[in-house]
Design a protein that fits this description.
It is elongated and about 45 Å long. The chain has 4 helices and no strands.
Amino acid sequence: METNEIVECIRPLLARFSEDEVVVRRLVTTDGTFDALCHQYGRVTDLLKAYEARADQEAEVEWLKKRRAVLEEELLTRIEGYQPQ
């Protein structure tokens, strides 16, 4: 994965968990599941921003907020459980 692609992938996650940047960068390049979760988190965050801008999307906004919270919990569990090799 190219450096720019990594940065774009983890940008939303780093906005939320900036104190764990080193671990996030390492996990995104070494753990395929973590990388996939980062991509999902970015997509959900982008969708949430788009739906929040529209007045008639309350149900979608609530669902996306719940989905983002689930992804945050799973990502944080992986970040906190990371053991350097």
